[in-house]
Design goal:
The complex is a heterodimer of chains A (about 290) and B (about 290). With about 290 residues, chain A is an alpha/beta fold. Chain A is built from 14 helices and four strands. Chain A is globular. Chain B has one domain: Rossmann fold, CATH 3.40.50. Chain B contains 13 helices and four strands. The termini of chain B are far apart. Classes of the chains: A alpha/beta (about 290), B alpha/beta (about 290). At the A-B interface, helix 1, helix 7 and helix 13 of A face helix 1 and helix 7 of B.
Chain lengths: ~290, ~290
């Protein structure tokens, strides 16, 4: 009862976390991804691009590029428009303009495993192989499985002018070009040197340093295991060293049509050729 | 700042309602692992299916427009307090697009050419549309997903099929199959709900939910249901209750527009196209095949 009363007071003052229940404006843009797909890095890139005079860090990222899952309704309401908001939601019809960041699920699984260990979400005795089974079943996150998440967005919005699909791997390989593509989508005229500066200021090394200084000042890393970093390898293809062949097979056989569609090369070549024809009508993604 | 204190009072009222459980939970509903959701795009036969299910699961009392929101609750209508009294496992009505929290889903699909006509008539009944409002304009808004808050027909269907089709937690029903053979389809539902499909019980549920029966109940209880309250009485909620009405009521040019946008999904779902133009126009969506492995 006291907990409920507390909530009501917070609710009346607009200080409760917005979650899914806040007013969305037609000019909002959402930076959406499945968890552990490079969303925080992308937030840093955009925040650095949009606020070249601020020192973007973990301590202020929730203010510079807010997340409705963390911020209060009142805070969100007061933001200058147009707003850019971070989200991990699967398809939400109210999100009109969406930057969708997608990452190879084999890397996502490894990244989420380390993150869940860091956050004390899973017992240290859980092996990566056990974890992957739960990952494929969609039991590791409250946003659905990777398949459900990606399919719900890509199947409804790919090809629309208000939807921009960005692969984490491309953002990593061609950071400046891809950041420029996002800027253009946002209607921002960014000069090459501004893009370069945003990329430099959001480098993995710099983010690692900031994490060391500010980890207790950010919702994502507060009260987590300090010996496991939040900014980890920051590369693609790490799954080849860390996933067992069996785990790779589990992910690929469950999701190969989407992997093929998104241009992620399969270890099991047999799934490669059989999958795509008939599966996807048109508009290959890459 | 009077505006701000008004907002504050509204918030306090909402907060007090919340404390007393008189609010409608909507998306904040706490979902239980044994919940089953009855999902569809609006005007796809959801209310009829609710009656069928209520009459199947609760044979001790016939479903009516007055009690349906307690038998098969709707998070946007049924209050939190009423939800707390509902026995488990619950069957819950929804029009939402894909929601990963729903543990098990019965999804009802209907030919969009019929859906658009049904929604057009319903919006006239609800006085959201003037009587002489042109159908062409409504179809344009329908295609853009602007006639209801649950996405376009294509979005609603696509989010569910791409994420859950061929999953044992998902049962797909077509309205047209239900109209053609309600006993057979309700038997499928009973099996999905882990019930013994008793033929007599199924027949009784089908009879109690027949269109004539529902029309009678609607006449008697129209103001006791959120579906029909304060709406025009000269137009009925339970309308034709049949499939294929579009072929005589929907002008060819509008059929063509619907098929141009969603022809690839419709073909995939087994709805025969009437115009040949359908697939020559670039669809906005990537469509997914049904044989997705799990």
């Amino acid at each position: 009862m006291i907990g409920q009363l507390k909530y009501i007071v917070k609710y009346a003052l607009g200080r409760d976390r917005a979650g899914r229940h806040f007013t969305i404006f037609p000019d909002d843009t959402f930076l959406v991804s499945y968890p552990k797909s490079g969303n925080t890095w992308c937030r840093f890139l955009l925040a650095n691009l949009l606020h070249p005079n601020e020192t973007v860090g973990f301590a202020n990222i929730n203010e510079l590029l807010p997340a409705p899952g963390i911020s209060s309704k009142r805070f969100l309401k007061k933001l200058p428009r147009p707003r850019i908001l971070k989200s991990h939601e699967p398809f939400d019809v109210r999100f009109r303009k969406v930057i969708y960041l997608v990452r190879d699920p084999r890397d996502v699984a490894v990244s989420e495993y380390h993150f869940d260990l860091k956050k004390h979400y899973i017992d240290p005795s859980v092996t990566l192989e056990q974890y992957v089974k739960r990952f494929v079943a969609g039991e590791t996150a409250s946003y659905g499985s990777w398949w459900e998440h990606v399919a719900s967005w890509v199947a409804t919005r790919q090809g629309s002018s208000s939807f921009l699909l960005v692969r984490y791997e491309d953002l990593l390989a061609n950071s400046i070009e891809e950041t420029g593509r996002i800027a253009k989508f946002l209607g921002i005229q960014a000069r090459p040197e501004s893009l370069q500066a945003a990329v430099d200021r959001s480098s993995a090394n710099r983010m690692r340093k900031l994490e060391q200084q500010q980890s207790e000042q950010w919702s994502g890393t507060k009260n987590t295991r300090k010996e496991i970093p939040f900014v980890r390898a920051a590369k693609s293809g790490g799954w080849k060293e860390s996933l067992s062949p069996q785990s790779v097979e589990e992910i690929e056989s469950a999701w190969y049509p989407l992997l093929n569609l998104l241009g992620y090369e399969l270890q099991n070549r047999a799934l490669d050729s059989t999958a795509t024809p008939g599966w996807v009508r048109r508009q290959p993604v890459s | 700042m009077p505006g701000r204190s008004d907002g504050m009072i509204a918030h306090l009222v909402a907060g007090t309602k919340r404390l007393l459980g008189l609010h409608r939970p909507g998306r904040s509903l706490v979902i239980l692992p044994d919940d089953v959701f009855l999902v569809s795009f609006p005007k796809s036969g959801n209310t009829w299916t609710r009656f069928l299910l209520a009459n199947l699961v609760h044979p001790e009392q016939a479903a009516t427009f007055a009690n349906i929101h307690r038998l098969i609750p709707d998070p946007s209508v049924t209050t939190k307090r009423e939800f707390d009294r509902i026995g488990r496992p619950r069957i819950i009505k929804s029009h939402e697009c894909f929601d990963p929290r729903y543990p098990r889903v019965i999804y009802i699909l209907r030919d969009p050419r019929d859906v658009v006509l049904s929604q057009y008539h319903y919006h006239r009944k609800l006085k959201r549309l003037a009587d002489d409002s042109p159908l062409e304009k409504f179809v344009a808004r329908f295609l853009a997903g602007e006639t209801c808050p649950h996405g376009s027909w294509g979005e609603n269907v696509t989010t569910w099929l791409t994420s859950r089709h061929n999953d044992p937690r998902f049962l797909l029903l077509r309205y047209e199959d239900m109209v053609a053979d309600p006993r057979r389809e309700l038997t499928r539902v009973a099996v999905f709900l882990n019930m013994t499909p008793d033929a007599q019980r199924i027949s009784q549920a089908v009879e109690r939910s027949a269109a004539d029966q529902m029309r009678k109940l609607e006449k008697a209880q129209s103001d006791q249901s959120s579906l029909t309250k304060d709406s025009r009485k000269d137009l009925s909620f339970v309308r034709a209750a049949k499939s294929g009405g579009w072929s005589s009521e929907l002008p060819d040019s509008l059929v063509e527009q619907l098929e141009a946008k969603w022809g690839h999904i419709m073909t995939f779902l087994g709805y025969e196209l009437a115009t040949s133009k359908a697939l020559s126009i670039e669809p906005e969506m990537v469509s997914f095949m049904p044989d997705k492995p799990r």
